[in-house]
Design a protein that fits this description.
By secondary structure, the chain is α+β, with helices and mostly antiparallel strands. The protein contains three helices and nine strands.
């Protein structure tokens, strides 16, 4: 009876050892597949971008790239903000107030994804000499969409306002987009 008991415990030990080795082997084989599902380092690097705004003058536009798309950043004057906010936006194609398009407490900064919502063109209006359209903002010459100084669609085939990306101010002059 002693030898049977000893044989059973050896058999149990062999089953446990073989099962453990099989589990380790399965994990080792599955790890490359699981790891390949993680985003690449270059993709993670594009997920967010930080922009130093300290050198942007009032009335100036800059363009940065986020996730392969241009992002328009404009530093607006107090007079510009006042005139934009006095407009009656309720009748616009995509009605949205200027307050809803900027971060509270940072009204002078307008941050927009610079891609026309019609067919994905890049509107003009950031460089000196560019057409600004009928409303002083951005103009997409491909199909004639006109955006105002808050990035709202006012005329042309574009169905929506220029998108506002997710962003946050890390300091008064540094923002993180994404």
């Amino acid at each position: 009876m002693d030898s049977t008991k000893d044989g059973a415990s050896r058999r149990d030990f062999l089953y446990l050892t073989a099962g453990s080795m099989a589990a380790v082997g399965a994990g080792t084989a599955a790890w490359p597949l699981i790891d390949s599902m993680s985003p690449a380092a270059d993709t993670l690097a594009m997920a967010s971008t930080e922009v130093d705004l300290s050198k942007v003058a009032v009335g100036q536009n800059i363009i940065v790239v986020w996730r392969g798309k241009p992002v328009f950043i404009r530093r607006r004057s107090a007079d510009e903000i006042k005139s934009i906010r006095e407009e009656d936006w309720h009748g616009f194609r995509d009605p949205q107030s200027d307050d809803a398009r900027v971060m509270k407490g940072h009204d002078e900064w307008l941050v927009l994804v610079g891609v026309c919502t019609h067919l994905g063109c890049i509107p003009k209006g950031n460089m000196q000499g560019d057409p600004h359209g009928d409303y002083g903002g951005w103009f997409c010459p491909c199909h004639g969409s006109h955006y105002d100084r808050s990035g709202r669609i006012r005329k042309g085939p574009a169905p929506h306002n220029l998108a506002v990306p997710p962003y946050a101010f890390k300091t008064d002059t540094l923002i993180r987009i994404g």
